[in-house]
Design goal:
The radius of gyration is 21 Å and the shape is elongated. The longest helix is centred in the middle third of the chain and has 16 residues, at about 140-155. The chain has helices at about 10-20, 25-35, 50-60, 125-130, 140-155, 175-185, 205-215, 230-235, 245-260, 275-285, 310-325, 345-355, and strands at about 5, 60, 65-75, 80-85, 90-100, 110, 115-120, 135, 160-165, 200, 220-225, 265-270, 290-300, 330. The chain is of the alpha/beta class.
Amino acid sequence: MAAEAFAALEPAEVMAWVEAQGLPAYRGTQLLRWFYRSPATSFEAMTNLPDELRRRLGAEFTFATLAPAVVRPADGGDTRKYLFRLADGELLESVCMHYPRTATSSERTTLCLSTQVGCAVGCPFCATGLAGLQRNMTTAEVVDQVLAVQRAEAAVGRRVSHLVYMGMGEPFNNLEATLGSVRRFCDPLAVGLGVRRVTVSTSGVVPGIEALAERGGGVNLAVSLHAPIDEVRDALVPINRKWPIARVLAAAEGYARRTGRRVSYEYVMLRDRNDSLDLAERLGALLAGRLAHVNLIPYNAIPGDPFQATPEDHIQAFRRCVRRHGVECTVRDTRGREIEAACGQLRADAMQATAV
């Protein structure tokens, strides 16, 4: 029988396992700190644990559920795209973006993580969606990708400070793994990030938003809106036909009321598709008076698709229209264009190369 992934255990379960070995509780705390906070890449490397404990750990648990396949840097090394190979041969992507300290912001390193291999939502401007869904990731796989990137980033003197569930997949179509990994990332016995440093993004799965409100501990919520009217959003985000804008906004408003957290609305700018100034006015009117923030995203083109990026001057005009309604609106910093950093592109390249 295959060994269980160590990351599948809740910290409380790790503490119970250590106690069952007849060891004091502090050994469990040491073990958790080694696993979640150190650059160690094996149980054997946990040098202040007893030899017998390390042997038992190696016999009963798998240290990692994935192996690194490719690391591709960009932006002078400030962006690094990771491609991992899972035990069944499937590939997943994570993108790590380092932002140096500026006069108006502190230094941070943000990891964009995945929850599925592929995606079933089918947004036509997304490389992951065009490839379809292969399978859900386990909780352990979601956690292990973050730990693997943390260890790699530590080697270049960086600490992952923020997590965003904006990589491959729809997090709420893999709800239990998403919520289980959120618990690990925010648990002070595990990764230990504050809830304000973790953002879960959804294309608008209403039951998932409601579940996050009940069980997510108050992390940030982002909604991939991409259009302020159903006629346009139906074509860009197909699940809008199941959960239209009014239902998505009602769920997001409920989340904001319950948690007191501002909801971020993501809006990829597609030339002549969703970027008219009339739609900007509608977007501003739709979100006016809500605890909301709009994040405009310059489009990262996918080879062969029919979409084009909105020119920068027009993005700024769109932004001004939204802001006139009293809605905070910013433009996302574009990263990783030379490594095709949009979700799914590196995986697609690797799969194509393997096929050839």
